[in-house]
Input
Amino acid sequence: MTDHDYIRAHLLQEICDIKPLGHISLEEIEANRKQFETFIELMNARMRQGYFRYGRNEPTEPAKIDYLNHIKKCIEAYERTGNQERLVDASNSCRLEFLFPSLKKVHFLSNDDGFHAEIFK
Output
């Protein structure tokens, strides 16, 4: 273990009370950043296209689309076709549902509710 690895592990243990999963290289961090930027660029391009197709959402007006239903349809289409464009559409609908919520009891509570992604083994 290098000095850097030891210091990193110690700081993570002290700050977060967690054990690091392993060293992540700068190359991995850069690759993840580029992937994320590409995804965000695709989302923004689709949002611009949607602006011309559907018009602008106004905070004082009800949503023009049932975003929750659209998210489900996009995921079903992705599962059926494998077309990742549907994931971008679903993400944008999540974004719009967040900005223009359709639920009456909408809130944001950041806590560990036990709902987590499953890891394949």
